[in-house]
């Protein structure tokens, strides 16, 4: 059997000093995460980030940089995640759109609010991505190549 990590994408979006999060029902309770999800078959990483942001937050997202690539092993479930996090701008919204199953609401939090609620984050990647964003980490989207 070949081992395969769970490939995910996330959108790290800041506006006016606050970061977009989604509050979601998980197997571990109600937790916060950036709009994020799994890469679908045949989908580009950038396309997945755009889609997941819309499905989980009802915001249209235009990625402009790769924030980072993060590998995290969730020991409790013996799963490894490979997260591609993007940053960019919101270009519109669909306020009447239904959010993905399990998503309770969107929330805009300051860095201090996020730091104070780390125990309610879906993974340690939530705070790490925010801190990397604040540290100015950005990589060109041209690093990624997708063959259809």
Tell me what you see in this structure.
The protein is an alpha+beta fold and 148 residues long. 20% of the residues lie in helices and 43% in strands. The protein is built from three helices and eight strands. Strands 5-1-7-6 form a four-stranded mixed β-sheet, sandwiched between helices. Strands 2, 3, 4 and 8 form a four-stranded antiparallel β-sheet that branches. A hairpin with a 4-residue loop joins strand 6 and strand 7.
Question: In brief, what are we looking at here?
Answer:
This protein has 148 residues and is α+β, with helices and mostly antiparallel strands.
Structural class: alpha+beta
What proportion of the residues is helical, as a percent range? Answer: 10-25%
Write the H/E string, N to C: EEEEEHEEEHH
Gyration radius, to the nearest Å?
15 Å
List low-confidence stretches: none
pLDDT averaged residue by residue? 97
Through-space gap between termini: 26 Å
Shape: globular
Major β-sheet profile: 4 strands, mixed
Biggest sheet strand order reads: 5-1-7-6
Total strand segments: 8
Structure annotation, total helices: 3
Strand coverage percent: 35-45%
